[in-house]
Write a structure and sequence with these properties.
With about 290 residues, the protein is α/β, with parallel strands linked by helices. The strands form 4 sheets. Strands 5-4-3-6-7-8-13-10 form an 8-stranded mixed sheet, sandwiched between helices. A two-stranded antiparallel ribbon has the order 1-2. Strand 6, helix 4 and strand 7 form a beta-alpha-beta unit. Helix 1 crosses helix 8, helix 3 packs parallel to helix 4 and helix 4 packs parallel to helix 6. The longest helix has 18 residues. The two termini are about 30 Å apart. The mean pLDDT is about 90.
């Protein structure tokens, strides 16, 4: 059954929904990237209308004819330019934005995309009263002591540092009373090591909060989390890590485990794990950031 819209008290005692109606369009920023493409696929699978964007407006899955244009349309958005985001999000009927962009040689460096680009998206969402912003970040992003952080930050030329600075600033922006009154919120998703392949669904995943566990999961499952979280108030204003349960390891040892493609989950328990046979069960009990 479809989740019931969860309500909160907003301005002057009015109620606001903390979920995103299926009738609203969802914008995907970075739709030509690996995770962005999967987000487009997941939205269409869920029957949601999608605005797939890139800096040029040329979208691979549309150009190739892979996706029907009934539910998906192309859009122009450069996350390093607030103006392009503001113009795009001023369109009526947009219910959410999925930030799946990341630093690239053509699109901008880590600070420009993963920090300032995220801030541009948050500012444009708040300014245009977009109910939900979903940000694809990274596991271990708060753990500069870990081998995974050090490797990714080095290879990505400061990308982990940029991601956590972007995350922190977005969380601060959404603490404004005006955001809660209007029912504007965010979800920060921190995937472990990304793999290719089909989505395994909610039942194979574990969520955690505290950034002390990680593992691996497919880009398709990251996309499923991005899309399905829109249906649940339990994900409103939350930050969580995600990985396949069978790949779970403490942050200190997850790098080697991922390289070896290990499937013997750790005995370590953080106390913040979430598992379930459905998206509703998986998301239930997540702790709010504020």
């Amino acid at each position: 059954s479809s989740p019931k819209p969860a309500l909160a008290v907003g301005e002057e005692g009015t109620t606001v929904s903390l979920t995103v109606p299926k009738s609203k369009s969802v914008v995907v920023l970075g739709a030509n990237g690996g995770t962005g493409r999967e987000c487009v696929n997941s939205l269409l699978k869920a029957g949601r209308k999608c605005v797939a964007t890139s800096r040029t407006g040329v979208i691979d899955v549309i150009e190739s004819g892979v996706q029907s244009q009934d539910l998906v349309k192309p859009g122009v958005a450069d996350v390093t330019s607030f103006e392009t985001l503001d113009t795009l999000l001023s369109e009526p009927d947009i219910g959410a934005v999925i930030f799946a962009a990341s630093a690239s040689t053509k699109g901008g460096d880590a600070v420009a995309v993963d920090k300032l680009g995220v801030l541009n998206a948050a500012k444009a969402c708040i300014q245009n009263n977009i109910p939900r912003l979903v940000i694809v970040s990274s596991g271990t992003v708060t753990r500069p002591d870990s081998a995974v952080y050090k490797l990714l930050n080095f290879v990505g030329k400061g990308i982990m540092e940029a991601k956590i600075q972007g995350e922190d600033a977005v969380r601060e922006m959404y603490t404004q009373a005006d955001c809660r009154n209007k029912g504007l919120g965010y979800t920060v998703i921190r995937p472990g090591g990304l793999t290719t392949g089909e989505s395994g669904g909610a039942s194979i995943l574990e969520l955690n909060q505290g950034d002390n566990k990680s593992g691996r999961l497919s880009r398709a499952d990251v996309a499923e989390l991005c899309v399905n979280c829109l249906d649940y108030a339990s994900t409103f204003d939350t930050t969580f890590e995600c990985y396949e349960t069978m790949t779970a390891k403490p942050v200190e040892s997850v790098g080697l485990s991922n390289i070896m493609k290990s499937t013997d989950p750790t005995a370590f328990v953080s106390g913040k794990e979430r598992t379930g046979n459905s998206w509703s069960e998986l998301f239930e009990g997540l702790e709010k950031d504020c």
